[in-house]
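Teaching assistant's notes for section 4

Start the section by putting this record on the projector. Ask students to predict, before seeing the second block, whether PF03932 family protein CutC will look compact or extended. Collect guesses on the board.
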Amino acid sequence: MLEIACFEITSAETAMKSMADRIEFCDNFELGGTTPDFYEFLHLKRTSKTPVYVMIRPKGGPFFYSAVEFIQMKSSMIIFKEAGANGFVFGILDSHNEIDEAKNLELLELAGEIPCTFHRAFDRTSDLEKSIKTLIKLGFKTVLTSGGKSDAMKGKENLKNLIEKYSGQIEILIGGGVRSDNISELKEFTGGTSFHSSAILKYDTFVTEGEIKKLKQGCS
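Reveal the predicted structure now:
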């Protein structure tokens, strides 16, 4: 399974015409992804059948949110759910960088039957095994992770461990610097089957269809 992270409409359209299995749609690449424009989302849903997972994140920076920001997150989820989002991507930590069970559960309950991914806020937590058990208990379907390191290649030992122990209970989506030149190695070493990439090559700004094709071949 190959998910492509798309930070603007041009890349999203390219990814949806390609071999990508689904896209994660968000805004603000420089902030690591925030909630996307609603009308751009509607356009994508009207022009393609590729599943679109929507990022629910009101700001960049830490994954600890104020009461006002949390209300924003809930409102965004309701709006995108009614408009046909295929999945949601979010992750709330407390002031100690541990998973905020209560707030995440509220969002999961709002999502209902729509699958939810806990994003790389997971990699900020102090104990990855404890955290993944919490996500499974809460009901997340997927966790996006680089194995607690700055990128997936650096975290491949941890990814292998998580996949061996927990892949039967939650989809472990390998992300963080995943490109066509390392995806085969990551797959072979970790045993992973799900991968996440922006498919943006060095010095490029947008997703390239050729890179998506190579990524898909590398994870197949």
